[in-house]
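Chain A, query sequence.
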Amino acid sequence: MTTSHYSALFSQSAFMRFWLARLCGISASQMLMLGISWHMYDITGSAWDLGLVGLFQFIPALLMALPAGQLIDRYHRGRIFACCMLLQALIAFLLLWAMLEHIESRELIFGIALVLGINRSFQMPSQQAITPLLVPKELLQRATALSSTGVEIAIIGGPAMGGVIYTQGASTVYLCCAVLFILAFALSLSVRYHHVASHLAASWQSLFAGLRFVLQRKVLLGAISLDLFAVLLGGATALLPIYAKDILHGGPQALGLLRAAPAIGALLMSIVMTRWPIHKAVGYKLLASVAVFGLANVAFGLSTHLGLSIVLLAIAGAADNISVVTRLTLMQYETPDEMRGRVAAVNGVFIGASNELGEFESGATAAMLGPVGAVVLGGLGTVLVALAWLKLFPDLAKRDTIAQ
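Chain A, predicted structure.
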């Protein structure tokens, strides 16, 4: 990206305020999930329970996804995002109170996971649907890459800070999370844009309009479903506490580094893609990045050295970032504004399935095969998915440019 392109993006004050809000909110979310996962493993020592945390988030997110998309197209997306930040601040305060009163429990964490799942069904599509309203269309791909850069900074900083802060106790982590969520809430309320409510979103039939839209566009369906199966099979996030504690023989700091490592790779790739966006052979590069993601996870599953494990997770994160930026940019180009909330909600279901349901799959598989077997098998499955999508979605594989 040239200096003029940077200046053009940075001059979009509403976009930059929202960028900072997401930076604070996602940093806090990452710290919160690190605290919850390590806390749960301390309480139960169970891979199955770590997986259940993901499942308890996925189920309500799935049930609420379509209604959430409809509401996002009807109401102010920035205010919806702000409410999501405020709710997570309250959750952090609840966890802090439970720690101080010594009443934290497995059941409390499962209940909080349910609420976080509902919250995510509104947060993810609202934040995705806002960006196209804050920048000119010619800056959209670069704005998406810059947004991804901010996300990766947050995903790096959140776990790293959380791992260090956790040495002072889980209560300190939850307090810091609450402060960051409140800051994100305030920044979100300051974002201004011209809101036009979708009249179609008010009808009952339009509830499933986003799903129909995606199913009718094979390129979009292929890109979104590719990410679903790749992360569902290849993700190892839920098992990182086990790797940090039992395989790599570290503590919360090691867990923070492992959770931050994919984002370090993704951040570097975001910088590369911001400077040099993908212009040609978009489809083949997307599928190749997913295969690399799977192979890196296989190698991570077999590693017993912390430094090597961090490098391999960083490679996986860099490959995954190519998929994320390409998929989100395709989605924004292919979707009219009045449908963006509902299409983003469908995308949120796929992302939620890949992340939270993937955590449950990892925990369940690890309970049967052990953590190493679960990660290696999942990585190999991801490579097979990338190869299968060459045949199942030829239009996606042959897609040459983002806009066509």
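DSSP finds 15 helices and no strands in the chain. The two ends are 22 Å apart (CA to CA).
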